[in-house]
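cron nightly-structures :: item 1 of 1
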Amino acid sequence: MSSKRSATRALRSVVALTVLGVVSVLPACSDQVAIDVQGVDARWVHIPGPGDREALVVTSSEDEATSSAGALAQRPLFVVLHGAGQDAQLMTTFGGWSDVARDQHAVTAFAQGVDKSFNAGTCCGTASVRKIDDVAYLDRLIATVSKEVGADPARVYMVGFSNGAMMTYRYLCEGSVHLLGAASLAGTNVSGCTPTRPTPFLQVSGTKDDIVPIGDTPSVAVAQLGPLEPGDRAVRQVAEAFSCPPSRRTVLGAVTVTTWSPCAQGVTVRFDVVAGLVHMYPFDGSYSATQQALAMWGFR
């Protein structure tokens, strides 16, 4: 069995537990973190502000050793948000975003939710109940990592899985940084707001996702998460808000791709529906949401 397929099955097992909030993966005590990716450095970076917040930041070992301060400050920044019941360190093992830091000479910052959750609006967990200001946390994360680690605060991209994807929707509405690209993977909009700043946007959903479904199928986790906007409806609202033209649809094997382009300011909105995909990070031998997002944002 391939390592990627093993990872996706492991993530499905994690997600099955997240609704119950029983996953326990804790950050390491030291700043430096050993992750199973060659050619990168990983460390915890303190994010100042209310509460004890951090982000796990991954960079290319080669860049850190050989690049000038000016070159480091020009690197793009990818902000990655985990799902409910998960944390930043676990998220380094899925989706290949740690490899992206190395391969794209970029900085990948894995955000750390409060009690393994982000306040995306009506969801999820402790962060939502306590009304944690996660928009402000992400603003501070971008500013802190850009300054202390070295990245271009004008070249920021955000991707979230599940609860993290919901938080990405909210950040598109309320964040102070105008993202150059955003992706919601197995997520939806629970904030009640509609993004108005045109941003290249990718929504990925699975036909077998019973936690954040598409269409009129109710979520099996509605008792824990509350009513959820279907993912297909959320992305169509984004397309409408960005003044997109009528969509066009293409079927590529198991993936149905709906594209709106060009929208306002020339951006593209895209909705990928993966046949048979359950509520898990879409990353295996047949479909990689990470690579699809990178290609959409102009990375090769």
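cron nightly-structures :: done
Confidence is low (pLDDT under 50) at residues 1-30.
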